[in-house]
Design brief:
- The C terminus is likely disordered.
- The chain is an alpha+beta fold.
- Among the domains are: about 50 residues, Uridine Diphospho-n-acetylenolpyruvylglucosamine Reductase, domain 2, CATH 3.30.43.10; about 100 residues, 2-Layer Sandwich (Enolase-like, domain 1).
- It is globular, with a radius of gyration of 20 Å.
- The strands form 3 sheets. It has a 5-stranded antiparallel beta sheet with strand order 4-5-8-6-7.
């Protein structure tokens, strides 16, 4: 591990000033950064500890919106009624994301800045990976490459990796925004645009954050539809593991079990959480009991899917996950409780 200097920031100005110096990295919970340092993915000259900054609050606004400080712990948010009761998809994504020990340390802002778990990116010996060594190629897409865990959507010949954050998928379906501050002031980035595909930027650029910017908060709208929501994670083992495919949904019902509106985001299929906007439109007026109609509506969004030699199974898996998540979300209504979520 490369040697680096360490300092602690006690206010936002000092943290943002430090970021203007090339070779500086911010340290919060450290659960991801420590991996980067050990694996040689990052070799900073300076580490700036920001754990003293006043960014831990979780507050509800006048319109029901939830503002989550970037340094709020995953475990704290997962236990809040505003997540458990009003946005179960959010609480579920957090509880399935990591072990209790990690959730007690990991921050919301840090979780969103995770790097791909592509084995070629994380390899302990040099392998072609444009995310890690620009211009070296993509080992997954070369002859004999393993693509079983790779993307269905948004990939290019430069990179076919997927993003691992479960929380990011929930935030995408909730139409959340990521609030950032930097030398140019403050700005809001939609959660659906925070992570970048290789068609939008060089593969080594993971998010829309500029080098001198940091996340300060995440804001989640207050919507009744979020109460009928579900996060479904499919993984290779039941214990702590990253998703092969995940599905986050929110749901509004009209008469009986008819869908008035739905939102769907998938994880494990792209460089960012992937919203199924065409399926969302097609699902309007569909009965939840009509399996064929549900599957046909969801399949519309897979017209642009480009499975690789090893990951064609994800097409069927992701579609089934979306349908199941929709039905699971509807089950949160108590029979005879005037549509009130349980």
């Amino acid at each position: 591990m490369k040697e680096f200097t360490y300092a602690k920031a006690h206010d936002m100005d000092s943290a943002l000033t430090a970021l203007r110096t090339p070779g500086t990295q911010l340290l919060a919970g450290g659960t991801e950064l420590l991996n980067w340092l050990k694996e040689g993915i990052e070799t900073p000259d300076h580490l700036v500890d920001i754990t003293a900054l006043p960014l831990t609050a979780i507050d509800t606004g006048p319109s029901g919106e939830l503002r989550i400080g970037a340094l709020a712990r995953m475990s704290d948010l997962a236990a809040r009624p505003e997540a458990v009761r009003d946005r179960p998809v959010l609480a579920e994504s957090l509880l399935l994301a990591a072990s209790p020990q990690l959730r007690n340390m990991a921050t919301i802002g840090g979780n969103l800045q995770q790097r791909t778990r592509c084995p070629y990116f994380r390899a302990d010996i040099p392998l072609p990976c444009n995310k890690r060594t620009p211009g070296s190629g993509c080992a997954a897409l070369q002859a004999g490459g393993d693509t079983t865990q790779h993307a269905l959507f948004g990939w290019t010949q430069e990179c076919a990796a997927t993003h691992p954050s479960d929380l990011a998928v929930a935030l995408a379906v909730l139409d959340a925004a990521v609030l950032v501050s930097g030398a140019g002031g403050e700005r809001r980035i939609p959660a659906t645009a925070f992570h970048l595909t290789p068609a939008e930027a060089e593969p080594q650029r993971h998010t829309a954050l500029e080098p001198d910017e940091m996340i300060t908060a995440v804001e989640v709208p207050g919507r009744p539809s979020a109460r009928l929501s579900r996060f479904l994670k499919l993984r290779e083992r039941a214990a702590y593991e990253f998703a092969v495919v995940s599905a986050a949904v929110t749901l509004e019902l009209t008469a009986g079990d008819t869908i008035g509106s739905a939102r769907i985001a998938l994880g494990g299929v792209a460089h960012r959480p992937w919203r199924l906007t065409a399926a969302e439109e097609a699902l309007r007026g569909t009965a939840l009991a009509d399996t064929d109609a549900l599957r046909a509506a969801v399949a519309i969004s897979f017209a642009d899917a480009r499975p690789l030699p090893g990951n064609g199974y994800k097409v069927e898996l992701a579609q089934r996950a979306a349908v199941r998540a929709l039905r699971d979300a509807a089950r949160r209504i108590e029979p005879g409780a005037n549509g009130g979520p349980r």
